[in-house]
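re the bet — no i am not wrong, look at it urself. input seq straight from the record:
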Amino acid sequence: MLFKILKHSLCIISILGISSIAIAQDAFKVNNKTYTMDDIKKDHTAELYEIKKQEYDFIDKIAQNQYLDAFFQDLATKQKKSVEQARMDYITKKTKISSKEEKELLKTLKDHPQFKSLSEKEQKEQIRSYLTMKQGRQVLEDLVEAAKKAKKIEILIPKPQEPVYDMEIKDSDMVRYSQELSSIKPVKCSSDCPITIVEYSEFQCPYCSRTLPVANQIMKEFKGKIRWVVRDFPLDFHDRARPAAIAAHCAAEQGKYWFMYKTLFENQQKLQDADIEKYASSIKGLDVAKWKTCLNNPSIVSTIDANVASGMKIGVNGTPAFYINGKKLDTAMNFDAVKAKIKEELKAKK
């Protein structure tokens, strides 16, 4: 009787389209053993999310193009022009290049070898062409955004939800609570930190070093509420990234990680063995002989490999990569973007 009741209930749930009882979907079999989607998600959550996101973004792009084609076709019909002419006239009407923008771009490009070889007239033409193209893209983006708000564009398939990864802090992690990198006794959160940022980076990556000022600004702004975790992710094509990481971990063995961290980033172009040893010698209180012995410690290599493996598992494929409370930062590392994300997290915790 109980079986019949349960069976009847499941039929009702199925008819109503209610999925209150989760049933794992079979994915494949190997040697007659069945693997479900839940089995795959355990180790491939990041890859599956990226695939779904690519599909969603692709459909979104098709919808945008479909709308723009229809918009300019309608405009061309009303104005009795060709579609291309209607598009160009619309964009031209909406764009306005200021002399200030031209001067700023000229200042940025003035030392570029290819740009320097052009005549003054050619330089101005290229600058105007670039700015016109840039503003034209913005005009189309604004047009699409307005259409979405007016529900003239609606994506009907569900947007994939970005996973929240388990970012358990390990004993081997390098953690700071203050903007002062050289602080031996950092100011810790008064209670459990509401915000944890995990950064995957490496010492030979130029983009990683450029994020340091932003990181310091964030640490200062949210002092007492944040901890910043650094994990190694040396890239294969940076041959000095791994030796530098080993050197930093060996400095950490004597409580000097952040001193070495700062020095290595300040000298990214000079990371040969002799250079790194010189930096070690300059760190006050560091036993250089002990540090040099540590460089051959296999456990240090294992720690770095474990960091790389943990990053690959959650979708890290380049540096730097940042996760705020387990959520991947999907924009460039700039103060306003990170501040906004942190405020969202703090609000959610209230």
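see?? Strands lie at 26-30, 33-36, 174-176, 195-201, 226-232, 321-324, 327-328. told u. also Residues 1-21 have pLDDT under 50 and may be disordered. so pay up
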